[in-house]
Design a protein that fits this description.
alpha/beta, Rossmann fold, 13 helices, 7 strands, 37% helix
């Protein structure tokens, strides 16, 4: 049985008790890329009228961009950080893009012969995918997943990722992985950009996967996309250590081994290392984003806010009561502003994407 059919069976089982929405296509990548919100925030289309989270953000932006306000933030310090999976991109269908992509590589790519460890790890991910809201797979899973794409150039890897982005999202109709962005959150990113905020994506997914998904759909350059990292090596480097090898004229840069999973405090380390400034805005959706969000709002010389996207919609998305409850408690404990997908989003992926029966 192919990966697509396996995951479809998993998603169908998980969503039998959920209510369907209406039927039509999601927004295309070109349509998503065209989303634009003015600096004054007057033209948001995908948020409900009385969404408290959006109103809080607009009030904040109006305050910190006003030169006459005591809370004014200079343009060079307007830094906003966003998690990717579950914050701006589909997460629960029924697993993350990077792990679904890894399973596809192991189960369905005829050009690839997996090792025993790769196959068993993919089977383990498949088993976890039976449960909506399952924990993020371990760092060891990420290590093995990276190993399935070693010795490729970034261009070769990107090509495979973009091909997989054309696959349908399991469990949701009329939605491809490359289109599976939350339209209300894309509006937020546009709104911030038009208010001279520099937006960074700080994800637990592998950096090159994030780049393949994001570049061309949002005006975020590659150097503002941070994710789980890997080692790179020269084609002719062999077993020589990086310090002992000089890159040659006929070399290629190849993907190597896993370094570190960009979750929790690792996100804070990455922000400090790659941005070098404390963010003033942070957006996440799970407790693996907690350190990043708290870093933005703790001991900051500027006025700050953090927002938690709550996947509480069980009609237009595979919302999980368990993960919803955990994130809501996190918002209460740490002062993050909750964003309810169910109550605050007019649409998630575009009108008429629905749970698959």
């Amino acid at each position: 049985m192919s990966l697509k059919n396996k995951l479809l069976g998993i998603a169908l089982t998980a969503s039998l008790a959920l209510t369907a929405f209406t039927d039509a296509d999601a927004a295309t990548r070109d349509e998503i890329a065209a989303i634009s919100v003015k600096a004054n925030g007057s033209d948001f289309k995908y948020w409900t009228k009385d969404a408290k989270a959006l109103n809080a953000l607009k009030s904040y932006i109006k305050d910190v961009t006003d030169k006459n306000s005591a809370n004014f933030i200079p343009k060079e310090d307007r830094i906003a950080v966003f998690d990717m999976d579950g914050t701006i991109l589909c997460e629960t269908a029924p697993i993350y893009f990077d792990h679904s992509f890894f399973m596809h590589r192991v189960f369905d790519d005829p050009s690839f012969k997996p090792t025993k460890e790769q196959y068993e790890t993919a089977k383990n991910v498949e088993a976890k995918a039976k449960h909506i809201g399952a924990p993020y797979p371990s760092a060891n899973t990420a290590k093995v997943a990276v190993s399935a794409f070693t010795d490729m150039t970034d261009k070769e890897f990107e090509k495979k990722a973009k091909e997989y982005m054309k696959e349908n999202v399991t469990g949701l109709t009329n939605l491809k992985w490359g289109e599976a962005f939350y339209l209300p959150m894309i509006e937020v990113i546009s709104y911030l950009a038009h208010n001279d905020f520099k937006v960074y994506v700080v994800s637990g997914s592998e950096r090159q996967i994030c780049r393949a998904l994001i570049v061309g759909i949002m005006d975020i350059p590659t150097n503002q996309i941070i994710g789980t990292d890997i080692v790179y090596k020269a084609e002719h480097q062999g077993d020589k250590a990086a310090l002992d090898y000089i890159y040659q004229k006929d070399d290629k840069l190849l993907r190597g081994e896993f370094i570190i999973k960009d979750l929790q405090m690792n996100k804070v380390s990455a922000i400090n290392r790659e941005i070098g400034k404390q963010p003033v805005l942070a957006f996440g959706n799970s407790m693996s984003d907690a350190s990043m969000m708290n870093f933005a709002i703790t001991g900051n010389k500027y006025k700050t806010l953090a927002f938690g996207v709550i996947c509480d919609d069980r009609e237009r998305e595979m919302g999980s009561p368990k993960t919803e409850a955990v994130m809501l408690q996190g918002c209460r404990d740490y002062g993050w502003i909750p964003i309810s997908m169910k109550n605050d989003f007019k649409t998630i992926y575009g009108d008429n994407v629905k749970l698959q029966k």
